[in-house]
Amino acid sequence: MIDSHSLSWLRQIVLAGLAITAVSNAATGQDTLHPQELRPVRSGKSKQRLRDLPPPPVHLAVPRQAEPIRLNPNIPLHLAPVELDPLVAKSTEKVAAVVNHARTLEGLGVGIADFQMQRAPADPNGAVGETQFVQWVNNSIAVFNKHTGKLEPPSPLPGNYLWKNFGGNCEENNDGDPVVQYDKLAKRWVLAQFSVNNGRQTGYSECIAISTSPDALGEYWLYEFQYPIMDDYPKMGVWPDGYYVSFNMYNEYTGPDGQLTSQFLGSRACVYDRRSMLSGLPGKQQCFQLSSDYFGFMPSDLDGSALPPSGAPNYYVALGAKPDTLDLWKFKVDWKDPRKSSFGQASNNAPNATIPVAHYNLACNGSGAICVTQPQKVKGQEQLDSLGDRLMFRLAYRHFKDHESLVLNHSVDTGGNDGRTAVRWYELRDLEKDTPTVFQQGTFSPDKTHRWIGSIALDRKGNIALGYNVSGESVYPGIRVAARLSSDPKGAIGNEVPIFDGAGIQTCAPAGGSCQCQKPDGTCDTLTRWGDYSAITLDPVDDCTFWYTTEYQKTDGAFNWHTGIASFTLDDSCSGQKHPAAALKNNPSQLAHSKK
C-alpha cells in the first residue's frame, strides 16, 4: 500500500514529467522544415557612452558561487581504460614555427583594481579591435588599450552595465556566459551574455550589444531576445549575412526533492539579422531547434577580409553523435522569405555531413568530466573540469585564394593506463562538397602534462596558433601556446611556449588555511570548475598577430583566479608590419618552463 508521503512524491514526479513534456514540445515541436522567426522583446540605444558612465559601487562583501556544469547526457560510461589515441605520436614531430614578439598583460582577476571576484569558473573571453582589446569574464568586462596595455576607464565594469537604463532581464541580471566578437567587416563590437536568473518567472534571454563605432567604450545598439527554456553555453560567429549563435537548451523544473533540476532538450541554432542590427533597427532572428541527440555545436566565425563564396552557408560543427566523427550542418538563411531558410537536412535537421576522423576519446577516460590533476599539496584536493564533452570556442573560418578552411579543437584522453588530457585539433577543407575533408588533424601531448580548454585560429598565411591551459602533478595551472607554419608536416604542431606559468593550485582548503568554500552545514566544499572556454583572435590591423586570453592560478586557494592576455606572431608572418602591442610587457617566462 502506498502511504500519503509516497503518493505525494509520486504525484510530484508525474507533474514534473508533464511539465518537461509540455516545455519540450514547445521547444522542439516546430516545423523542422522552417525556422521560428522571433523579434527582440526589447531594443534601443544606450543612453550614454560607456566611458561616460560613473564607476559602479564597490561592495565589500560579495557572495561567491561556483557555476553549475551541464555535461552532455548522451555520453556512455567507460569503466575500462580507453583506447590509445593514434595521433599522439605527432606531438614529437618537429615544426619550424616560432612564437615571436610575445607580449603579455594581466587580465581581469585577483589584484586588478575595482574588480570584484564573484564566480568560478572565469569564463574568459576576448577579442581584439583596431585600438583596443576587450576582455569579459563571468561578471565583469574590461577594455584595454592594445598599444599600452592599460585599462581604459571606467573599466572594469559589471557586464550588465552595457544595458544600463535599458530595462528588462538584460539590465537586471549579470549572469555571464559572455561572448566578445569584433565584426571586422563593419568595425563594430558585438558583445553578448545570457540572462537566466529567475528565468522561469521572467523568461530566459540572450542580451546583445552592438557598438555604433570601433570604440568599445562608446554607444551601443541594445537588444534582448527571449527563449522558451534556458539558453545555456551561447557561442557566436560573425558572418556576412548574420550573427550566428548556438545554445544548449535546458528545461528547468523543481524536482521531487525540491531542488532546481535541468534536463537537456537539444541544441538550438539561431541567426540574428546583422544588417538591421548594425543600423539599430529592431532586428529579428531565425532559429532551428534540434533534438536531444545533438549537443554542443558551434557556428563558424569569419577571420580575414576575404568573404566566403557568394551564397555560402554558415557552418555548424559538433563532436559526432557516432564515435570518431564530426557532425557538420549548413545554415542557409533567407531574410526575405524565411520559409526558404534551412538548417541541415530538411526533413529533420540532421547533419548535412558526418565526417570520419582519427579515433578519439573524450577527456577523462571518455567522460568529458573531471580528472585534470594539480601538484599534490593537500590530501584529497580537487581535480579540475575538462569540458571534454564539446568543441571549444572558436570554429574559425578563413577563405584563401585556392581553398576554404575551418579549424577547431576539443579536449581528449590520450588513452591507456597513463592517459592524460590533451588537445585534439583539425583543419577541414572542401566545405562546398557533400562531405568536407579532413585536411589535417593532430593530438598535442608531448609529455605527461594535461593540456585542455584550447582555442585555435589561422593567420593570413595559413599558419596555426593553438592556446590552452596546462596542469599536472608537477605543473601548476598555467597558460601555453603551440604553433605550426603552413609548410610544416601535416598534423604536427609544437615549439610550445609558456605564456603565464601557474604558481598555485585551485582548492577550497589550502594547506594551513581555513576553508574558502563553506557549505551551509559548516562542512568544506570543493571547487573543480575551470575555464569553460578561452579565445584566440586575429588582429584586424595586420591579420597576423594572434591575441589569446584564458585563466591561470597564481596562488593556492579558491575564487582567486587570474587571467592572462597575450599577443604574438609566427615566423615572419608579420614582416614589415608594426607590431600593435609593442608597448606591452615582455613575457618573463617565454624561454623556459618553471615550476614555482
CATH architecture: 7 Propeller
Give the count of structural domains: 1
**What sort of overall outline do the alpha carbons produce when their principal axes are compared?**
globular
Mean of residue pLDDT? 90
- Strand coverage percent: 35-45%
Report low-confidence residues grouped into runs of 5 or more. Answer: 1-26, 576-584, 586-596
Strand segment tally: 37
Q: State the distance separating the first and last CA atoms.
A: 64 Å
CATH superfamily: YVTN repeat-like/Quinoprotein amine dehydrogenase
CATH class: Mainly Beta
CATH topology: Methylamine Dehydrogenase, Chain H
Rounded Rg: 23 Å
Major sheet summary line = 10 strands, mixed
What does this protein structure show overall?
With 596 residues, the protein is mostly beta strands. The protein has a single domain (34-54, 80-586), classed as 7 Propeller (Methylamine Dehydrogenase, Chain H), CATH 2.130.10.10. The chain is built from four helices and 37 strands. The strands form eight sheets. Strands 18, 19, 20, 21, 22, 23, 26, 27, 28 and 29 form a ten-stranded mixed β-sheet that branches. A five-stranded antiparallel β-sheet has the order 1-17-16-15-14. A five-stranded antiparallel β-sheet has the order 2-13-12-11-10. The radius of gyration is 23 Å and the shape is globular. The protein starts with a helix and ends in a 10-residue tail after the last strand. Mean pLDDT is 90; it is low at 1-26, 576-584 and 586-596.
Highlighted features:
mainly beta; 4 helices; single chain; 37 strands; five-stranded antiparallel sheet; Methylamine Dehydrogenase, Chain H; ten-stranded mixed sheet; 596 residues
